[in-house]
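Hi there, hope your week has been kind to you so far. Thanks so much in advance, here it is:
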Amino acid sequence: MDPPENLPWTREKRTLGQIAADKMTEWVGSWTFIFLLLLFMGVWIAVNLYAWFMVWDPYPFILLNFVLSTLAAIQAPIILMSQNRAAERDRLMAVYDYEVDRRAEAEVADMQRDLDEIKEMLRDLKKEIRRRR
């Protein structure tokens, strides 16, 4: 069962930062990003190891380490922001699921009472039929 359209996370207006965090998390969490990052690192290392002139980052690649550390330092809080938003949506969905489950349980209990009443009526009817025979 899909949640109705009027739940809080379907009405919320996301800020520019929230939209950017969600989009970046979506991109950084993709295989495309991982492969492109590996390609970038491979090219960087290959160019620096085999360059004939102007080796800008000789082994052990301090500049590459700095670039990757900066990337990680920027990505980590942005990913955490996006995960916090996802966790909040999950909490709201759990509340919605709980309410749906409570209503369904009440309906099932009501149907069970109706079935018990019908059974009792059938027993009484059978007794009446046997008594009249």
